[in-house]
C-alpha cells in the first residue's frame, strides 16, 4: 500500500455514480456562459432536446430540469398525481424506498410491495395486484429500473406486459437514474409513461440535470391533474422548448456538456454502450465468484450491468473495508445504504470506463480484501481477465444470461 | 461594423445575468467529479456553506439547491406558506410579476401592489397596508431587491423598518437574484426572513444553483407549515449540511465553482465589490443622459448598480436595436420583458467586469445607436469616461446619490 | 480609476503579442498528452503541417519547432548560412537589431542598413545595394515584415521585386513573427526563401512554437551549407514530418492548439482576418490623431495593421504612462524598446480581438492620458467609433492607404 | 477484448514519457497568457526558477528553454564545448546514441564506449579511461542517467567518484530526461556540471520545455568557450532571469504548468516520489518474472524505477504486440528503438501514476500477451499485487536492491 498522504495519479471513482466525466465533456462545459435568450442558445437548446430523445428512445418531449435526479422524481409525481392518489411501488432497495418516502410526503397513498433488496420488481406480482384492482384505483405503477443500492435491474419490459395483461390503465413511471445511457432502455417501445433520470451516471455529466421523458398519456394526465406545482410543471417548459429555450434560466454550461455527452454516446452507438457494460459486469461477477464472496443480486436475469453489490462476510464491516480501499488505493467504492449499511459494498463499473480501468478497480478490491484481512480466495482478477479476453466459457454464458 | 459572419474576440455578454464567469471559476469547475459521500466532498461542502453565509451576511443556514433561481423562489414559498395564505407582493416589474404568478399557482392569496415598473417597492405603502391589517392576515411580504427587468433597486432596509413600524409579524422574503454579491445586502442585520438567490449573477457562476438564506423565524414557520414539499424541504438538507453533505446528490462541480467565486469576492472585499458596481452604473447613466435617452428608473435613490434599463425613443424598437448590437458588435444586451418588450433595452454591468469592459460596452451601444439610426446625441462614452476618471463632479454626486 | 488592488473582469492584454488566446484554443490544449509515436498523433501531425502551409500560403515544407520565435530566427540562419557569409539586413527597429545581433554572434558578415525606426526597409535602397554587388557576395537579404517595436510594416512584395530587378541570387529571409495570420503575406507568390514566425501573435497561441517556411532554393542552400547544427536542422524534421511525426518530441499540446487556431483562421477566412486588422489600425490611428499625438510610423504605406506605436510628448515618460494604464485599468500596453524606451508606447490590436475590445482599449488609453496628465485633446474614442461605424470618410481613405 | 472502434474511458499512456499530465497542471496551463514583461510574469518567473532548483537539488542557475529535451542536450554542448573537443560518452542505448550523433554533428571528437544496451555506464570503465588520459584531453564525460530506451539507470554518483578517483578535470554532463522528478538525483551533491532535462516525464508537463542545471565550473567553461551560439547561450538568459524574465519570449503557459507541477512534487515530497516509483518498478518486475519474460536490464543495481523494458520471446514481434494492446485495450506501450526495434516493448510506470493505474497497465499487458498468443505464464498481475500489498518478501528484497 502507498503510505503517502498525498494521492497521485487519477482517483478511481468506482461508486455507481457520479461517474467519471470525460475530458471532452468537462472541456465543453468549460466555456463562457451565453445569453439564454439569444439565437446561439436556441440552437443549443434544440440540439440537446432532440439528442436527449435519442437516448431515451422516444419521439415525445423530454423535459430537462436544473435539478438532481430527486427533483425529477418529484416532477414525475406532481405533474401526474394528486394527494390521495393510490400508487403501486416496489421495495427494490434504498432508492425505491426514498422515492416512496417522497410519495408519502406528497400525500400519495402508496401500496409498497415489500422486497428483500436482492430481487427486482416482480412482473407476476404486479400483474396479480393490478388484476385484483378492478376499480382501477391505482393511478400509477412506480418502479426503479436499476436499483443503484443493490445492483439489481428490474425487467421493465416485462412489467409493461404485466400491466397490459391486467388490462390496467395505471401510468407506468420508471426511475432510470442509474441505467439511462448504460443499460438497454426504450421509453416509447416499452410503453413507459414517465421516465425519470439525471445527468451524473450513464450520461457521464456532473450532477445538476434532472430529466422526465413523458408519454402522451402522461401529458394528458398532467393536464387534468390539479396538483399544485410551478417549477416542475411540464407544460411551460415544453412550450418554451419548441423554440429551444426554457421558461426559466436553464443550466447553460451543463447543457454544453450534455450536447457533448450525447455526441459521445452516439459515436459509440447505444448498442455498443450497452454491450460494453455487460462485459464489465460479467468480468466483475467472475472476480466476485472467485473471491468466494456473494453477489447481493440473486437472480441472474436481474444482474446489473452497471454495478455489482458485494456482500461482506459475516463479522466484517463493509465501510471499514471501503476505508481501506480509499486510504490505500485512492479508490471510492459505493457504501451499503440504510438497512444494508456496513453489510455490502458496491463496485460501480459504468460510464466513461474501459477494461483497464475495470482491472485497476478489481485489483484494488482484491488487494484491499487482503490488507483488510477479509477472508477470500485470491485470483479474482485472473477470472475477470479471462472474461475480458473471452477465454472463460462460463462467463460467456453469464454474459448471455445478462442479456 | 464588422461584416464577418464569424465572430472574433470575446463576446460582450451585457445582459444582467448570466454574467461573465471568471476563468478561475470555470477552471475550478473543470475538475473530476468526486464522491459526494466521501471525506473530500464533506470538506468542500462545509466550505461553501460557510462561505455562502458570508456573502448573504448571515449566521443562519443557507440552503443551496441544484436549481435555477426560480426553484429558490418556490423553495421560499413552500417551506413557509400554505395554500390560502395571504401575502403582500409588489409589482416592481417582470420578475416580481413572475414570482406572483408562481404564488398564484401555489394557491397563495396574493395582494399585488400595482406598480409602474419604474419605481421600487414603497416602504410607505407597505407600512400603510400592513398597519391596516390588524388581524395580521398577511403571512409574508415578498419583494424583489433588484428588479432585473427594470434596473430599479428597492430599499429593503427601509421596508424592514416599515414592517417594524407597522408592528406586523409577516415574514419578509426578498429576491436577491440579481443583487447578491453585487449590491449591498445584509440578511441578518436587515431582518430578512428568507433571502432567495441564484448562482449566475453576482456570484459569477453559470446558472444551476438556487439559494435560500433563512432566519430563525422562517425556520420556525417552516416547522409549522403543512404545505406539501419534498425536494425543496429545508430541514433534511440543513441536517445533512451539518456534516458537509446533502440529502440528495448536490451539483458537485457547481460547488467547486462556488468555492472559487466566494474566494474571489472575499479577496476583493464585498465593500469594494459594491462600490465598483456603483461606479459602473454612474458611468452608464452619464452616457445615457448624454445620449439624451431616458433611464427607466425614475428615482435616484433606486438606481440599480448592476444594470441600466434604457427607454427607446418612440418609434424605435428596442429588440431591433439589440439585433444591431448583436450582429455588428457581438454584444448581447438585455431585452425589455413582457409589457415593456421592444420599449426598453437593458445594459448589464455586473459581475466579473471592469472599466474597460464597460467602455467597450458603452461604445458598442453608442455605435449601434448610430447604425440603427436611433436619435441620440454623440458623446455618451466621453461622459462615462469622465465619471470613471473622477472628473465629472455631477457624476460624483450621482454616485453619492446611488450610495 | 479603480482603487482596488484586486483586478476584476478580463485583463486587457494590448501588447503586440503574446495576444489573447481564444478559449477554443486553450481548451483544445487542455487535453491529455498522447503518444507522439502513435497513429492518433500522426494524424494530428499531418493536419497541423498541412494547415500551417495554408497560413504561410506555401506548398513547400513548414518546419515547426518547440521554440520561441528567436529559435526560428536561428534556424533560418544556421540552415542556410555559414560563418563569414555576407548578408544584408535593415535596421527597421529593435527586433531587426536583435536579429542582426544574433547574426553577429553566429559570425555572419552583416551589412546593416541604418534606419530611423520610423520607416520600413526601402526596396529602392535594397535594389541599389544589391545592384552594386556584382560579385554576389550577399548570400541573403534579411528583413522584418512587421517591425513589432515600431508599428511599421515593410513591403516584402516590393523587396522581392527589388531583388529581382537587381538580378541578385541572394536568399530572401523574412521575419513574420508579428504579421503571420494578421497581415497579408504570401510565402510562395512573393518568392520568399525562408519565412520565420512563431505561435503567440496572429496564430493566437501561447508562446512555444517557432516556424520556418522554406523555398526549394533555401532547401537547396541548406544541403550545401556546412554550418554546424542539429536541433534546428530542417532535413531530419522534414523527413519525419512525412509520416506526421517529428525527429524529436514535439510540443504535443501546443500542436492541439495550433490545429484549433488554424481552424479558426480558416473559418473566418484569411482575407477577412487581414481586413479586420486594418479596420482596427485605422480606428486606432484616428484616435491617436485626435489626441494630437504622433504615430511613430511616418509612411502611410507602412502603417502596421496590428499595432500602433505612439510617440509620447516631450517631457512625459511612456513607461510611467504604461504603469498608469496597468494600475488603473488593468491594461498592458507595449513598451518602447531599447533606444525608444520611455519615448513610445505601443497599442497592440491583433489576434483574437474585436471592435468592442478595441474601444475598451482606446478608452483606457484616453482615460490614462487624462489621469497621467499627458497633454492631449479629448475625443480620440469618438474618432475611432466614426471609423468603425464607417462614418469617417477620411478614415476610409486612411483605410485605403493601409491596403 | 473490446471491438468498438470508439474508445471509452481514459487512455492508458504507458510509454515512458510523455507521461500523464495531472488535471491540476493542465488546468493551470489553461489560463490567459500574460505580458511576459509585466510584474505578474516576473513573479511567476522567479517562482519557477527557484522551484526548478529544488527539483534539480542545486543552488546554481537552472536555465529553462522553450524547447524539447533534445534542445537541452544541444544547449549543454554548445555552451561548454567547441568543435574538436574530445568527450567521453557511453553507449547505454538509443538515447545515448542519439546524443552522441548530435555531438558528432556539432563536431565533437567522441570516444563512444560501446555497450550492450543492457547495462548502464560503468564507473570502473570510465575511471580506467580517464586515468589513462594523462593529458586531460577529455573535456567532458557525458552520460545518460536513466536510459529511456532500455530501462537501465546508470549510477551517476559512482561515476562522479570514478572521475574524482582518476583526478580528471573533465566536466560531467548528465541527461536526466526521464529521471528528473522520478529517480533520486542531486545536481550539487553529486558534483554534476551540466544536468540536462525536459518537461514531459517526471515533471508531469506536456513536452515543450528543456532545462540545463549548471555548476560554477560549467559556467566558467562556458565563458571561455568560443563555440558559436545564440538561442542556447546561458548567460543572457541567466542575466534576464535575475528579474524573473527571459531574454526572449518564454513559453508562458508551460511555465504556469511548471509552477503547479513543482508544487505537486513538493507537496508529495521528493523522497516519497522516488520511493513510489521504486514500488511500481518492483511490482512490474515481479509480473515480468512470473510471465517468464526477460527484463532487458541485467544488473539489479541498475533497474530503472520508471520503466521496464521487456524482451519479446524469439519469433514474436514486439510492435505487433503493442498494436494488440493499443487496439484491444487502448493502451500505448513504448516501442523498442533502433537496434532493438521489434525485440522489446517498454512499460512506462512514472509520473502522475498510482497503484491501480499500474494494475490496469499490467493486466492489459497480461491480457494482450494472451490475445497475441505470446508464450507466457499467467499470474503476473498476482505477483505484482503481492509486491504492492507487501506480502512478497522477495519483491521486498528486489525493492531494497533497487534502492
TrEMBL record, chains A, B, C, D:
Pathway: One-carbon metabolism; formaldehyde assimilation via serine pathway. GO terms for molecular function: alanine-glyoxylate transaminase activity; L-serine-glyoxylate transaminase activity; L-serine-pyruvate transaminase activity. Its EC number is 2.6.1.45. One of its GO terms (biological process) is glycine biosynthetic process, by transamination of glyoxylate. Residues 16-320 form the Aminotransferase class V domain. Its cofactor is pyridoxal 5'-phosphate. The modification N6-(pyridoxal phosphate)lysine is found at residue 201. Substrate binds at residue 346. It is an enzyme of class 2 (transferase). It catalyses: glyoxylate + L-serine = 3-hydroxypyruvate + glycine. InterPro entries: Aminotrans_V_dom, PyrdxlP-dep_Trfase, PyrdxlP-dep_Trfase_major, PyrdxlP-dep_Trfase_small, SP_NH2Trfase/AEP_transaminase. The keyword Transferase applies. Keywords: Aminotransferase, Pyridoxal phosphate, Transferase. Belongs to the class-V pyridoxal-phosphate-dependent aminotransferase family. This is Serine--glyoxylate aminotransferase. It comes from Afipia broomeae ATCC 49717.
